[in-house]
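Subject: Predicted fold for ECF transporter S component, 172 residues

User T.R. writes:
Posting the sequence so we have a shared reference for the thread.
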Amino acid sequence: MKNNVKKMTITGLLIAISIVIPLVMPKIVIGPFSMTLASHVPIFISMFFGPVVAISVGIGSAVGFLISIANPVIAARASMHIIVGLIGAVLLRKKFKYPIIILILAPIHGLLEALVVMALGFPLTVAFVTTGIGTVIHHFVDGTITYPIIKALKKVMGKDMDPTLNKEKISA
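User M.O. replies:
I've generated the structure tokens; pasting them so everyone works from the same file.
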């Protein structure tokens, strides 16, 4: 019970941060592409607490972008954080190291967001060049920002951040 309360509290805090970041952090918007500094940090941290936490924080991220920018295209792109976080959490459970996960996730993240933009009617060049490549760059920037935060959190939280111990079931 105590562990569930702790996990729910961490999830709530990460969701709150993922909603607040788009409201307060500097951003660059170029058509359907936006880059909000540190917007991926909560999702990258959430991966260390398991798939359910990562999915929950991904949903919070999409809500945060919908509230802050009121642009459904950017919010739809942000919903891809659900998939990115889930894949990252699964890779952590399989004992992949964080830097490798960031490398693996970057093209997946870029492709997912480019596909969303393309599905919403934007030209291929806008989708894949501006959004896809822009997302990959933004992913690496936020992945770098997150790394020292994770190292510090692991010192404080210890086993609570060990994804191999987070074995909650995901029902489809």
